[in-house]
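Quick one:
INPUT:
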């Protein structure tokens, strides 16, 4: 995935807000990138533009060989469905369906059938093969987010987008989910982009992009596995950004 000179202005006239002010960045395949920055710095807008949920005002977004900014709505929807996975802070599982049915749901919406083996493999990858018949209400928060991860990955997307994936979880459970996310990136080479406010969450990434006022101020390369040192570095940079 590649962003080139992406600008996004929300609203018009006096109400216009420049949320992204010329973002250029390559996201190498098989890497985990965290996006951080103060409130209002443009993180969500960047994620939405990169994932084809929102259209940039100008610039290009290339994903899996397509320029998202030139696709019509029908093709964009198909690309999102087939090549992009999403995980949000709220797990967004359907309460009346089992874990396995939740994993199958996006494919059903697309009028496709996900082979049972692929559903099982997705649940197995997140360590929940034995919970396939459980409904969300019978699962812990961390388990529900793991089902959401399995659902996002079942279609083997080119890019996985995660928006505050541990925001609704306690610290320990959140760490488990992040560890799992890291493992999935490493084992399946799944390009992943995660927005987070938490330096300890961003510490599992390969790269942290720091945003301020819609601009990319720094791209930090982290040391794999050195979570405490990475967390301290990120927290320090964030503190500098907040006062700058
Ligand atoms: N739909 C919208 N209409 C008008 N302005 C918007 C809209 N969405 C976002 N903005 C503005 O664009 C800027 C960037 O917002 P964005 O939500 O991307 O920031 P963020 O870094 O994700 O913030 P937070 O950490 O608080 O979630 C902010 O000034 C925000 O007020």
């Amino acid at each position: 995935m590649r962003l080139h000179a992406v600008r996004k202005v929300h609203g018009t006239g006096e109400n216009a807000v420049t949320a992204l002010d010329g973002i250029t960045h390559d996201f190498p395949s098989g890497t985990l990138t965290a996006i951080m920055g103060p409130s209002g710095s443009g993180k969500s807008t960047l994620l939405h533009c990169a994932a084809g949920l929102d259209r940039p005002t100008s610039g290009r977004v290339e994903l899996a060989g397509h320029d998202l900014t030139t696709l019509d709505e029908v093709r964009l929807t198909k690309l999102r469905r087939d090549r992009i996975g999403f995980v949000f802070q709220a797990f967004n599982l359907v309460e009346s369906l089992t874990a396995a049915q939740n994993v199958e749901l996006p494919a059903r919406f697309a009028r496709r059938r996900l082979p049972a083996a692929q559903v099982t493999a997705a649940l197995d990858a997140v360590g929940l093969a034995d919970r396939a018949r459980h409904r969300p209400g019978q699962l812990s928060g961390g388990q529900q987010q793991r089902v959401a991860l399995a659902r996002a990955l079942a279609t083997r997307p080119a890019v996985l987008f995660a928006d505050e994936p541990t925001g609704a979880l306690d610290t320990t459970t959140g760490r488990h989910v992040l560890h799992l996310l890291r493992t999935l990136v490493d084992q399946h080479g799944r390009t992943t982009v995660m927005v987070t406010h938490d330096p300890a969450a961003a510490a599992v990434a390969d790269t942290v992009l720091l945003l301020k006022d819609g601009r990319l101020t720094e791209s930090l390369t982290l040391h794999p596995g050195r979570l405490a040192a990475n967390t301290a570095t990120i927290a320090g940079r964030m503190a500098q950004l907040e006062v700058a």
